[in-house]
Specification:
With 340 residues, this protein is an alpha/beta fold. Helices cover 51% and strands 11% of the residues. Strands 3-2-1-6-7 form a 5-stranded mixed β-sheet. A hairpin with a 5-residue loop joins strand 2 and strand 3 (147-152). The longest helix has 27 residues, at 211-237. The chain starts with a helix and ends with a helix.
C-alpha cells in the first residue's frame, strides 16, 4: 500500500474514528488508529504485542480495532464490493472468458473457515468438521480474485433465495457461441454446492465419468480456482488469519469484512498498475461441508444447463490443451488402479 493509498483510506474513515481531546488526556490520532489496525491485520500480532509497541492499553486497542474495521467496511464496501449492475456482470463474464475460457460465468463461489477460539458458553455452535471452532466466510470471486460479494457467518438461505428470485440483477440468457441456444449466466462452485440453473458444479465421482465429463470438470475447476486464489491472497496479505482469532464473535466478523474490502482495495490498485497481468498457480480444491436444500425443478434446469456447457466445451468451445490435461488424469488413474 502506497502512502497515497493510505491517505485515501484515512480520508474515508477519519470522521468516523475521530475522538475529541479531554481536559485529562489527548485523544489517539486518527492516523495512528488506522496504522494500529492495519498492523494488527497485516502482521497477525496480538493485542499484547501491539500494546507494548504503541504504549496503548489493551482495553483501548479492543475499542479502536473493531471501530476502525467497521468503518473500513462501511466506507469501502460501496466502492470496491458493491452489487454489480447488469453491464458490470457482463464485464465480469467477459473477464472469465478471456482469462479462463469459461463462458457466461459471473463468479466462483466457495466457503472458508476462519478459525476462532471457542466462544464462552457457545457449546458446539461454532465447532466444524475440521475439529476447530470457526466462523464461515462465503465468498464469490471474479476472474482476477477480487471478492464480488461475501457473507460472514454464512446464512446460506440468503444467497440462494436471492439467486432464485433474480435479486442479483443477472443479465438475460445469451448463447455461448454465435448461432447457439441462449444459456443462463452462471456461478460456479465445487461438489458441495447445489446444482441450480444459475449455479454449476462438477460431475461427481471422477472414476465413473467419461472423457467429455472430465473435460467439463477440468474447465470448471480451472475457472473456479479463482475463489481459492482469492482466499490464498487474503490470508497471506492479512496474516491475522494465520492464527485463531482471540476476539468476540462480533469483532471477528468485523475483522473478516474489513480484510475482504481491503483485499479488493489493494488488488484493484495492483490491477490498475498492471492491467494485463493475471498470474495464478494451478490449484487445489477445498472441501466445504455446508450444503443447502434446493428446489427440484431448479435442479432439473441446472442439470440440462450443465449438459449443454459440457457439450459446448467438447465441440465449439474446445481449447487446445484440454485433452492432454484430462488424458494425464486418466493415465494416472490407470497406473494407480494397476498398482492396487
Amino acid at each position: 500500500m502506497t502512502r497515497d493509498e493510505f491517505e485515501y483510506l484515512h480520508s474515508l474513515i477519519e470522521d468516523d474514528i475521530k475522538k475529541e481531546n479531554t481536559n485529562y488526556r489527548e485523544a489517539i490520532g486518527t492516523r495512528e488508529r488506522l496504522v494500529i489496525t492495519l498492523r494488527y491485520l497485516i502482521t497477525g500480532t496480538t493485542y499484547t504485542a501491539l500494546s507494548k509497541s504503541y504504549r496503548i492499553g489493551r482495553s483501548a486497542l479492543s475499542e479502536i480495532i473493531p471501530v476502525v474495521c467497521e468503518s473500513l467496511w462501511i466506507k469501502l464496501q460501496p466502492k470496491v464490493m458493491k452489487l454489480p449492475t447488469e453491464p458490470e456482470w457482463k464485464v465480469i463474464a467477459k473477464d472469465f472468458y478471456d482469462l479462463w475460457n469459461f463462458n457466461n460465468c459471473l463468479g466462483a463461489i466457495d466457503g472458508k473457515h476462519v478459525v476462532i477460539f471457542s466462544p464462552r458458553k457457545s457449546g458446539s455452535q461454532y465447532f466444524n468438521y475440521k475439529k476447530t471452532f470457526s466462523i464461515v466466510l462465503l465468498a464469490i470471486a471474479d476472474a482476477h480474485g477480487r471478492f464480488i460479494m461475501i457473507d460472514v457467518g454464512f446464512t446460506d438461505s440468503n444467497f440462494y433465495n436471492v439467486l432464485q428470485n433474480n435479486g442479483l440483477r443477472l443479465p438475460a440468457d445469451e448463447p455461448l457461441y454465435e448461432g447457439g441456444l441462449p444459456q443462463p449466466y452462471v456461478f460456479i462452485g465445487n461438489c458441495a454446492f447445489p446444482l441450480m440453473t444459475h449455479l454449476l458444479k462438477p460431475y461427481p465421482d471422477h472414476e465413473r465419468l467419461d472423457k467429455d465429463q472430465l473435460i467439463f470438470n477440468y474447465r470448471l475447476s480451472r475457472a473456479r480456482r479463482m475463489v481459492e486464489s482469492a482466499f490464498g491472497m487474503l490470508v497471506h496479505k492479512w496474516r491475522i488469519f494465520f492464527r485463531p482469532l482471540d476476539v468476540k464473535i462480533s469483532t471477528a466478523k468485523k475483522i473478516v469484512k474489513a480484510a475482504c474490502v481491503l483485499h479488493n482495495y489493494v488488488l484493484q490498485n495492483e490491477i490498475e498498475k498492471a492491467p494485463s497481468q493475471s498470474v495464478f498457480s494451478d490449484n487445489m480444491s477445498r472441501n466445504y461441508s455446508e450444503v443447502s436444500e434446493q428446489n427440484s425443478a431448479d435442479f432439473e434446469d441446472g442439470f440440462f444447463v450443465r449438459e449443454y456447457f459440457m457439450e459446448y466445451f467438447n465441440s465449439v468451445g474446445t481449447v487446445s490443451w484440454q485433452n492432454n490435461r484430462v488424458q494425464n488424469v486418466l493415465d494416472s488413474d490407470r497406473i494407480t488402479h494397476n498398482l492396487h
